[in-house]
Design a protein that fits this description.
Number of strands: 16
Mean pLDDT: 92
Strand order of the largest sheet: 3-7-6-5-4
Radius of gyration: 20 Å
Order of helices and strands: EEEHEEEEEEEEEEEEE
CATH class: Mainly Beta
Shape: globular
Number of helices: 1
Low-confidence stretches: none
CATH architecture: Beta Barrel
Strand content: 35-45%
Length: about 220
């Protein structure tokens, strides 16, 4: 069993558990065991307004990830995104192998610069074997970033949705008559998915925009 490195107090009782968000060593692999959640529909710890399913797991010795959001199955592996994991709080990517029952740290972002990612949220697996990560942090512009399975991160595209007068796009009026004149470059990316030669992705916020991206995919990692 993995040694505990964190604790939580639930209904006056302290429970020790293992927090994967505190791990930065790439390639770290854990053997997987499962615990049963007796009340999967229970929103809170009895008598409180917090906890619920997560608390039921921790009380049984389960491990945790920080702000688990994106998850995707591809290449026989389930990729899991921890949006605020790692010592810098900028995100981690894990791979769960259901055949081997192992959980491996593939990537940890130590900054929101070119060698990192700013709080990855949704993720998707490319048929060519890499991952696309949707940023949901505080940087502007927010980006879609690629991640190869050997841990190499690279920028793919960034939103230029600046609808202010003089901005890259300028004010836009929808057929409904609503006009947008804000700087939307910091809006989060979400919902990326590949279908044949297309990558679909959403820029979430005001306004919400869906992009269909294509290109010579076979020339690159994505």
């Amino acid at each position: 069993k993995t040694a505990t490195n964190a604790s939580i107090t639930l209904s006056g009782t302290s429970y020790n558990y293992f927090n994967t968000a505190l791990v930065n060593t790439l390639g770290t692999t854990w053997d997987v065991e499962w615990v049963d959640i007796e009340n999967p529909d229970k929103p809170f710890v009895t008598g409180t307004t917090y906890g619920g399913v997560r608390a039921q797991g921790l009380m049984q010795g389960a491990s945790s990830i920080a702000r688990g959001e994106g998850i995707w199955y591809g290449n026989g592996v389930i990729y899991v995104c921890s949006t605020s994991g790692g010592s810098a709080g900028n995100g981690q990517i894990f791979a769960y192998d259901p055949r081997k029952e192992t959980f491996t740290l593939l990537f940890v972002s130590l900054s929101d610069g070119i060698d990192g990612v700013d709080s990855p949220d949704n993720i998707a697996w490319s048929p060519r074997g890499s991952l696309i990560l949707c940023e949901d942090g505080n940087a502007s512009p927010q980006q879609l970033r690629g991640l190869t399975l050997d841990g190499t991160i690279f920028p793919f595209c960034a939103t230029n949705m600046d609808f202010r007068a003089g901005g890259a796009v300028g004010p836009v009026t929808r057929p409904s008559g609503r006009t947008f004149s804000n700087d939307a470059r910091g809006n989060e990316w979400a919902g990326a998915t590949f279908h044949n030669e297309w990558l679909f992705a959403n820029a979430y916020g005001s306004p919400g925009v869906t992009f269909a991206i294509t290109g010579p995919w076979d020339n690159g990692a994505l």
